Amino acid sequence: MNSRFTQLDCHPLRQLAQVLSEDAWKSGPREERALWRGLAQLAVGLTHAARGNAVGGARLLRRGAGAVEGWAAERGEDRLYGLDLPGLARWARELAGRVEDDSAPVDAETEAPRLGP
After folding, report:
1. What are the two backbone dihedrals, phi and then psi, of residue 8, each rounded to the nearest 5 degrees?
2. Cα 33–82–96 angle (5° rounding)?
3. What's the predicted TM-score (pTM) here?
4. 22, 46, 66, 76: least surrounded by Cβ within 10 Å?
């Protein structure tokens, strides 16, 4: 299992932002870079939404969802390291819609999906 994911196992998605914002995804396997970039966009989108930036949050959540779905479709995999990629994309799009409808900040702790059991 990838050591970067092991460190993040069972933590809310928003905690990915700290690791991924440091471009850790660039050091991983080349074939996974687009996925990790998409996951970073989800994490940063959630962070923006939690800080009250509805436009930026929704935009990044949708961009990340598209990247995650695109990677899964291209690779023919919908799970990597136990992540439910289609589920993450659905979560991100649903949250993006709610963020746009109600521009109040969201609670990142309660809104973040769980990444593990």
Report:
1. -100, -5
2. 70
3. 0.78
4. 76
